[in-house]
Write a structure and sequence with these properties.
Blueprint: E1 2-11, H1 19-36, E2 41-46, E3 49-55, H2 59-72, E4 78-87, H3 91-104, E5 124-127, E6 130-131, H4 133-145
Antiparallel strand pairs: 1-3, 1-4, 2-3, 4-5, 5-6
Helix pairs in contact: 1-2
């Protein structure tokens, strides 16, 4: 199994502004993720967005780890969104899920969807490290299992 994640950050009052702050935040999150999560790989997609793939980790472990990292680097002028999804299947099926994760990570789509209609994959949303309402029930269920 692989968990895919996209992390994006924007200015709370000026989504297109605060380029230096967003750049510093992206670098800080990148360093923290590489130090904290074994076997993680990824790349920067845009000035304010990163992609990660975490092999050999279930979603029930990945979501709390990403949440903790996001909470640890919060900044008052910035807002972050992280969308995670477990991925299995063929390379083509994984690309479809990645496309869905990217769509879910757009700020305008916050909370508008919780499943990829192509594959039935479940998406987990974290805003500034906190689960969005659609993900809270799933996280409570995960915590009760652990």
């Amino acid at each position: 199994p692989v968990v895919m994640a996209i992390v994006t950050v924007w200015g709370k009052d000026s989504p297109g502004g605060l380029l230096e702050e967003k750049g510093a935040w992206i670098h800080r999150f990148w360093r923290e993720a590489l130090a904290d999560i074994p076997d993680i790989g990824g790349c920067r997609l845009l000035w304010n967005e990163m992609f990660f793939a975490v092999p050999n980790m279930g979603i029930e472990e990945a979501v709390p780890r990403f949440a903790r990292l996001l909470r640890s680097i919060r900044e008052s002028a910035l807002e972050s969104l992280c969308v995670l999804s477990p991925v299995t299947g063929t390379p083509q099926e994984k690309l479809v899920v990645l496309d869905g994760v990217g769509h879910e990570a757009l700020p305008k789509n916050l909370g508008n969807s919780s499943a990829c209609w192509h594959t039935g994959s479940k998406f987990y949303h974290l805003r500034d490290g906190e689960p969005l309402p659609s993900a809270r029930a799933d996280l409570k269920q995960m915590e009760s299992i652990a």
